[in-house]
Amino acid sequence: MTERIHLFDTTLRDGAQTSGVDFTLDDKIRIARMLDDFGIDYVEGGYPGANPTDTAFFEEKRTRRARFTAFGMTKRAGVSVSNDPGLAAVLDAAVDACCFVAKAWDYHVHVALGCTLEENLESVRLTVEAARARGHEVLIDCEHFFDGFKGNPEHALAVARTAHAAGARWIVLCDTNGGTLPHEIEAIVAAVARDVPGDRLGIHAHDDTGQAVANSLAAVRAGVRQIQGTLNGIGERCGNANLVTIIATLALKPEFSDRFVTGVTPEKLGELTHVSRAFDDILNRSPNRHAPYVGANAFATKAGIHASALVKDPRTYEHVPPETVGNRRRVLVSDQAGKSNLLSELARFGITVDRADPRLDRLLGEVKDREARGFSYEAADASLELLARRTLGTVPRYFEVQSFRVMVERRFNELGELVTQSEATVKVKIGDQLMLSAAEGNGPVNALDAALRKDLGPYQSAIDDLVLVDFKVRILNGGTGATTRVLIESRDGAKNHWTTIGVSENIIDASFQALMDAVVYKLVKSGVTAVA
Amino acid sequence: MTERIHLFDTTLRDGAQTSGVDFTLDDKIRIARMLDDFGIDYVEGGYPGANPTDTAFFEEKRTRRARFTAFGMTKRAGVSVSNDPGLAAVLDAAVDACCFVAKAWDYHVHVALGCTLEENLESVRLTVEAARARGHEVLIDCEHFFDGFKGNPEHALAVARTAHAAGARWIVLCDTNGGTLPHEIEAIVAAVARDVPGDRLGIHAHDDTGQAVANSLAAVRAGVRQIQGTLNGIGERCGNANLVTIIATLALKPEFSDRFVTGVTPEKLGELTHVSRAFDDILNRSPNRHAPYVGANAFATKAGIHASALVKDPRTYEHVPPETVGNRRRVLVSDQAGKSNLLSELARFGITVDRADPRLDRLLGEVKDREARGFSYEAADASLELLARRTLGTVPRYFEVQSFRVMVERRFNELGELVTQSEATVKVKIGDQLMLSAAEGNGPVNALDAALRKDLGPYQSAIDDLVLVDFKVRILNGGTGATTRVLIESRDGAKNHWTTIGVSENIIDASFQALMDAVVYKLVKSGVTAVA
């Protein structure tokens, strides 16, 4: 018999406290839908009344299956339930459940609320009853529960017991400042579970000691049956518990999967990587390549002591199969790249070559030679694929850049203002035709990119949807005369992403190589043929 | 009585497996020195014989206090100790200690080594004896120990016992694929500690379930007395255990600090944030703002339910005081923290200003404004000092750059070869005199630098010994049109180092700002006065 673990997502509420994160109404709607489809049990959408976005978001129910939840504070001491406008906004929201934060640390009751402990308990009781009377399911987030328990266990427990007795469905133990350690969590949860049944308890952890996931799982082991967290662990300071990591661990580690089940089906679990990255897309930030389970590198091995054994039997080097979370194995081609590595990379590109094909040795030699010069193909799949296809003779000669010139000038303009202007000229030969394009930009690479893609004649329509999304420069050794490595990430209208690389002593040359690869890769992938 | 926990850093060995990380010899030397100064007990430098960089790195001892450690594999089965060239390279290295990886999972002994379990134990024994005979301290990293223990506890334990009996100082239990959970770690370590004393045991954890820190600390609770990890948790896949987080937790959480002590003194702990960020600087990557303890946001609160209470009494909202790790509180409503910080920075430069001086407010406003635009003065002391001295009116107007022009051209030369040429022209006004200098370079910034420093007339002798030692470019947001931050590190004949910064949409402009600051800083520091 397995027990149910309930997943409570607070990305849109506590996650919105992340510095630099500012959800629009549209973002909130998209994220709530994604969480709902994925199988999350509770989607906490924000704090109705606290700001116009949250108020608008709670005008209608935004989930189909998940319980749509509003966050608020328990009734203020000294006013009645009907005279607390903050509370009214929460109770009036179009939700299935209300989650109220209550002070569980006596110190904060005195300092922040300025009321007695009795009044605090009374607030909890009246708030729970008021929300239940409106037909809402009720959760009580016990703020600073663990610090509170260490300081005054009687009051912390009284808050939990009061909420339970008043009919709250869940009493959530919050490690608000994130400083509690896993074994403390386990011991304190076990103590609480003697008063309040575990299937009414939840955990809300923060990552201030890098242990929010461990703390959440320790709480489950000690009895709680609800976990609160956020997508990719966003949140104030060091973040909240990362639900993505927790979901995978609950589903794939026998210790948990033998005893528990969540609302995320095995089929949905296969979308975990997609969900994590789609969320980063909405935030417009690069996914963490090293994220557990879902990072681009989570199942990647750089050639080294493990690579050849990994090729022999990948499973013993992977703690879970990458496909279960929708991720994939990557054997990185680098410095010590062997033939087996290269073959498995080529297979991923859909290129099959015989192990004895002499072109394979040529390609391997070329890769090693270029990596010795500073190329790093593990970060630039598209350039590796192009190099491979060129060696195998399957990349058309679409066009030839005969020359380019980039100029950056800083001078005083006619108004006496100091201005810097960048312009580039590119001469391209397509078939028999010579085309000269010029463009300005806000820097030399931007100008060169604009000139190169301004008019590629018959190919122009195939690259119209190409967008440069990232440009990275790394100097490989000291000084301004050093070798420069440029990585360019591109995207097209169909949301395909690819990364290309250029290396040169000259940053403009390096950028140009990466830009050229980005364009040619797009033409190859679009199945464009060369003009005669 | 406190017990000693030994810190073993493997940034330069296991951390070097991180995708995208490629240490130069100079990087390795700098990082080893930093770890040594910080109080790390063991600095594992790499794998002598595996590649030219590591071989060169091990030609001399690179630490003063820390044990300088080489990594290698135990003797191959079927050859004698003296006939194993890989082993010889490790034994011949200029080190204090050798750390050998041994297979502890019977499955891998059969599949990867293709030898018997007895031969495997024999390899361990002979390797330990050979290294001890050379006067080295010996560590045995038991690869896949936890998976091995679950599959065949007898063999896993036999490897640990054999290493111990042969005289290895440390037997390190490795969770190689990172999939083991904290309570499993705790139980298995406790089982091993019945055979091998805990003060001979170490833990080596990976972050594949987001619990490398929790696993390391669970192992300490169960008895191990050595922790292996990396700076900022870099490492293959999801990374190694983050030593930065672990060091802070051991030092600041009474559960650990009451029982244990490490080689990092409280004073050095105050440099933790600096060490973490300096390492990111070497990697040329942005520090993780959400990192536990050391992230820019680790003690930051966005206006929300906690902000006003935080202002009343910050300590109850912070799990540890930020100063203990050299970090600082950020409450977005208060300017006061900024002023105190700035005053202490200025004092460091030897500049004393009265707290009430209005120029201080102007400087603070300017710093905040520039940081909002992407400047990062934490990494560019010299530019901050110049900005401060300019606001206080003590930087002479040495010269004025009236205009510059940089051109990069790629074309076919008279021999039909494709060449790229970069040249720059700079017009400088010194006193009444206008000077035009032109120079070529192997890239636009190099050409600009050469032209600027070609002839500064009366100042030339003061900058003759100026050398640019590093040039770093970081793109602050996506696309080739993004804001660019350039950091330039310079050095003079007296081995003074200083770093300057420039930020602009245009990489050439940003580089120029940093170059100008580098030159002016040198003139100021040399006490040069301006030509009338």
TrEMBL record, chains A, B:
Cleaved signal peptide residues: none
Keyword line: Amino-acid biosynthesis, Branched-chain amino acid biosynthesis, Isoleucine biosynthesis, Transferase
SUPFAM superfamilies: 2-isopropylmalate synthase LeuA, allosteric (dimerisation) domain, Aldolase
Pfam family, one: LeuA_dimer
A single GO BP: isoleucine biosynthetic process
EC number assigned by the record: 2.3.3.21
Protein family membership: Belongs to the alpha-IPM synthase/homocitrate synthase family.
Annotated metabolic or biological route of this protein: Amino-acid biosynthesis; L-isoleucine biosynthesis; 2-oxobutanoate from pyruvate: step 1/3
Residue ranges constituting the Pyruvate carboxyltransferase domain according to the UniProt record: 5-270
GO molecular function annotations of the record: (R)-citramalate synthase activity; 2-isopropylmalate synthase activity
SMART domains: LeuA_dimer (SM00917)
UniProt-listed NCBIfam families: citramal_synth
Reaction(s) catalysed (UniProt annotation): pyruvate + acetyl-CoA + H2O = (3R)-citramalate + CoA + H(+)
PANTHER family: (R)-CITRAMALATE SYNTHASE, ALPHA-IPM SYNTHASE/HOMOCITRATE SYNTHASE
Native species: Siculibacillus lacustris
Gene3D superfamilies: 1.10.238.260, 3.30.160.270, Aldolase class I
Stated name of the protein: Citramalate synthase
